[in-house]
Amino acid sequence: MISVSELLSVLRPLHLCIGKTGHITQVGRGFDKLGQRDLTGRRFLEMFEILRPSQPRNMAETLDLAGQVLRLRLRSEPDILLRGLVIADQQGGAIVDLSFGIAVVDAVQRFGLTAKDFAASDLAVELLFLQEAKSSAMSASFSLNARLNGARLAAEAEALTDGLTGLHNRRALDGALSQLSKTRTDFAVLHIDLDKFKQVNDTLGHAVGDALLKQAASVMRRCTRQDDLLVRAGGDEFVIICPGLVDELRLSELSQTLIKGLSAPITVDATEVAIGASVGVATSTPSTQHDAAHIIERADIALYAAKRSGRGRHVIWTPALGTRLNDLDIPHVSSR
Hints:
It contains ten helices and 13 strands. The chain is an alpha+beta fold.
């Protein structure tokens, strides 16, 4: 037959038995998690402070609180509020049934409590299950959101990226130009066309052509700044947007460096292949600062002028070139 003390240990893991002298005679196993294994033999009122409804001074006054809900705490660490109920044992002593009350979530986190540390009928167990379910749901939600955000960002990046070269595409270019217009940022546009690319592509095949385009992208990354936007505009045409760079000398140096890099021969399938490049440059001015379309058009005009000048060179747009391609009717335009 199970004894009363064994029954209490099973049913009420967090309990105390107090003798008629006020000394603790039995401690529930739940106190192990609180680091309180030496309560047996100690005076109850020396180990616990009863805060409400009153503060008893001896065992008799403690028994007077039978049937009332107590608020109490340990006088030593850990400092955590407890909820208790005093039950007289008819032998001059008492049983104090304890719980964490509204502090249960804090207690679970601080002491690593599980359902086994509570009475099976304790509402705290239901709260534990709810808390665990909430944590699991939140974890799953965060994981799902992370995956969805990752997929969304990947899709957005893919939508703005040229699949062959890894540079940005026309859609990204339009967005960048719109942003530059809104922020009133000075910038330059370099429009680049690969010379002799079509001939190489037609005679040696698309595999060689693709290799040349990838090489061109690599050269542009190597020659430009981190903040510059590199765009494959289509076929063998590229656009570079340089925010904050409008100095013509620096733009000429950048153009020459690009042309030199793009003209270097590469070996594809044991065949050495060389092409070249022409560059048209236009910069924002007080009158065109917020009209990106006009600056792009002027870079196109400058590029056409560079190609008509003999290719393999760069031209920076000036008013003498006009504002439309049809204006460019002179047979030769000197490069800069």
